Amino acid sequence: MKHLNFIMLLLAAIAPFALKAQAEADTLAVVQRPDKVIVTVSEGRANVEVLGSQGDRASYYAYNVQTQEDSIFSAPAGRLKLDFPFSSRGGISRSSLRILKNIYAGGLLPVSSAEGIKGSWEIGVAELVGYGWQPSPRGPEFSVGVGFGFSELRLSGDKRFAKQGQRLAIVPAAENETKVSSGFRMWSMKFPLMLTQNLISDNDGDNGFGFSIGVVLNLNLNATAYSQAWREEVRYKQTFDGLHQHIFTADLMASVGMLDAFGVYVKYSPMRLMQGDYGPKMSTISVGGIINF
Question: What pTM does this model have?
C-alpha cells in the first residue's frame, strides 16, 4: 500500500510535465517504501529524487524534466519534501544529549480537590539534562531526563490553612480577618519519560511541527503552606512546614507545537499531593506554554 501511494504521489508530481516528457525517452520507476521524496524546481526545470527503498536503503533514483510555462511548478523555484512519519524503515538510529528541554510555565486548575482550593500557577525546567534515542530518522524519539519544578495552589479568600496536630487542614477565616490569602507550595525534581514525533519539517528536517506525550515522575522534596490575614491594622502570617506530602507522584503530560522551539502543553496530576489524612485532597490539571520541547 505504501509503494502504491508513492506511485500516485510521483505521478501527480510529474503530471504537468507529461507532454514535454513525451518528446524524450519514457521513464517509469516503481520504488517500494521510499525513505524520502524530494521535488526541486528551479530555472524552468523540475527534478524528482527518491532516496532509499525497501530492501536497499542506499538506492537513489532521479528524474529531471523541463517545466512548461503554464505549469504550476514553473513559478517560483522551490523545494517540496514528502516525508513519511512513524515509519521504522530505513536510516540509522541516533542518540543525543538533551540540554535545557521542556521549559514550561502554566496555570493550575484543581480537579476533585477539597473545598476552598482554587487554581494558581507552576513553572520549571523538566529536563536540565537528558538523553534521547531515535530508532529511525522519521520515527519517534524516546527520551529520559532530570529537571525541577515549582508549583503553588491558593485558597479562596474565605479559607485559610491551619495545623491540627500533624495534619494540614483548611478552616474558615475568622470574622475579624480581612485580606486573607493562603497557599500550598511544592518543590520537586522531575524525571520525564517522553515520546516525541515530528510530523512536518522544513527543508533541512529541523524545526518541525509535532507532538510529545509521556509520563513525568516527581520526587517531591519540599512542601510548605502559609496563611496571612489582617486584623484591624496588624498583619498576621503563619508558615507550616514538616508536611506529609507524597514523596513520589506521577503526571501525564502532552504537548504540541514547533519542536525545539515553542508549543502548548497540558498535564494531568491524578495523584494526591498529601498523604492519607495528613492534609486536604489536592489534584490538578495544568495548561500553559512550553519552550524547546
Answer: 0.67
